[in-house]
Amino acid sequence: MFKTLMPLNLIISLRFLGLFIVLPVLSVYALHLEGSSELLVGITIGGYAATQMLLQIPFGIMSDKLGRKITIFIGLVIFLIGSLICGFSEHIYMLMFGRFLQGAAAIGAVGTAMISDMVKEEVRGHAMALMGGTIAASFAISMMAGSLIGGYYGVDKLFFITAALSVFSMIVLYTKVPNPPKIVHHYGADETDLKEILKDKDLMKMNITNLLQKGMMTLAFMVIPILMLQEFGFVKKELWMVYLPAMICGVLAMGPSAIMGEKKHKAKEMLMIGIALFAISYVMMGYAKSASWFIVGVVIFFIGFNMHEPLMQSMASKYAKVHQKGAALGVFNTFGYAGTFIGGVFGGFFLEHFGIMEIAWVIFIACIFWLVLIATLKNPSINKNLYLPFDTIDLTRMMHLNHVKGVIEWYRNESEHLLIVKYDSKETDAETIKAVIS
Length: 438
Hints:
There is one protein chain. The chain is mainly alpha-helical and about 450 residues long. It has 3 domains: about 1-180, Growth Hormone, Chain: A; about 195-380, MFS general substrate transporter like domains (Growth Hormone, Chain: A), CATH 1.20.1250.20; about 380-435, Alpha-Beta Plaits. The protein has helices at about 1-20, 25-30, 40-65, 70-85, 90-105, 110-120, 125-155, 155-175, 195-200, 200-230, 240-265, 265-285, 290-320, 325-355, 355-375, 430-435; strands at about 185, 385-390, 405-415, 420-425. The protein has a 4-stranded antiparallel beta sheet with strand order 1-3-4-2, with no helix packed on it.
């Protein structure tokens, strides 16, 4: 699995590196451009998330219709053009346009859908954890490389490096990334229906989960440094002492969460534990009287956050039908970007007008409702997949599966000559399905 997915993970992580690498130095660089102001700099820094949010769904639908590879290639071309525009920018509006264009390369959901296509559902959690690990590594590298290269050679060089990485990613895409299996489903060719996706209760619960999780993450990154500096006397160069233990504990929590969620079929329970940790962490941070108590709250937050990370994309993809996977993950990621924006606005408003204790209680109450929502979520572990070689079944009887109670969907993997049947294990079993198509 590692050898198969690593080239695609590399492309995804390099794109994130291109977005992250300028963050340590972009604000001071943009502020000195012609026509600049603090507001315009803020829009320039965060504007890419707006176009990401708006275009996740269109790119997901495009990938369902045109194919994953060509859609990723189109996104990389857009990202390349946006990076070059940023690199040559001398006016704030030109830089802003380039950043918006970088965000318009909304291929995150497409890459996730392609990974889902290439691995069986039973190992998808491990695949998603691998993707999350490469993205986390790209973030860590970008924080160091951005400040060093930008400081010594200029921020514009960072954008040119990003452009070069885009070209490299295109080469990797067509030389190292294997073609996803050819999937033939029994739905109409143009049956990607957003209304159907939005009406799916389990998918919507996962969408709301992504919105709340990303919102609480943005809020955390906003309030933690402010409070550490203003309330506990830290200076900026000491903040690593807060984040380092939190990130180490968070990363260590990912493995057990993925194992319990995927191998032990406890994904729903892992989500609920993570939500409980969110509530506890914010209450601890809100009522902390010492730096050590506050840091414990930060560590608990990152443990909860990282428990979610290897499971959420995998769970969302399991609830989506095969022909709507790209669009469904596009909706899922759109909710996440919306949460990122809302979390920042919420944090700024409450810190300005109220305080951290009020934030803590709002988050605590939100987590109670969130727990109730997830408690009603159908655990995807009851859905099983049956893989049947073509030569062991009667292909002329496949349509009979539409009348078997408990069969959720079925499709043909023409590349590997397999019929894949997803079914509810509480309503039917493998032997019943085999009998229908034998």
